[in-house]
Amino acid sequence: MERSDERSAPSRTYVLTCPRCRSPVALGFTNQTACQKCHEQVAISASVAERRDNFRKLEAERRHKDPLWALALRARPHFYLNPKLLASLSYFAPFVGIMVGYVFAYRFGNYPLAALLWLWVIGAIHLLSSWLLVQRKPLHVRQLMLAQPTSEPGHPPQCRVCSSPLSIPAHTPEVAASLDCSCDHCGADNIIGDLPLVTPRPDLYSIQSAYQEVFGGLMQQRMDRAYPFILLVGFLLLGGISFFVVQVPQTPLT
Ligand SMILES: [Zn+2]
Ligand SMILES: [Zn+2]
What we know:
The chain is mostly helical. The chain is built from seven helices and four strands. α3 (83-104) packs antiparallel against α4 (111-135), α4 (111-135) runs antiparallel to α7 (218-247) and α5 runs antiparallel to α6 (207-215).
């Protein structure tokens, strides 16, 4: 997916800092907030509160319409995307193929069909595992969008880009697993809900840049989509060829 509407890099100025210790404060949801570093109470003026609420609303609407954001928000580490499972799928493919070939053909003396089944089963399993590998990628995009946890317990997570404290909206159980919010300071989109397992990448400000990082350029994306099928066609052809090659000695010469 090529995008030309990529959002610009953040400015490093904070919307509101603590008057005592100068650290950025969470803008919260009322007309007052507390500094997380020094616990100073900070008043939020009516104009700041209005801008805050407008900004959050517009940003939430923008995210809501973004298919890439939906992709990252939905991504879950399903068991069938487990890397160990995918690696063992490819590893066991030849053995599964041999078993299928044996059960359906070899034990009846049909050697050409056994060879064909062996290769076709390997091809089908490789198609499945390489397709699942592509399905893993949105998980990585999600990881890159995750808010960073704070070292102090009880504190809300920090923005993944500028490390300011985030104001997490109250959430109902339905959305608890896929919660997102904007950073009030730098405007970066953050996903909240699980702990990031990858190194933070504040340089990837927009979801578009994270998507490009994980999925690669257009050419790479096309290759990734085509690869499982190229592999499958290869195995299908190989199966067909070996079917005829194995059959040749059985065919009486005329
Ligand atoms: Zn402070
Ligand atoms: Zn931020």
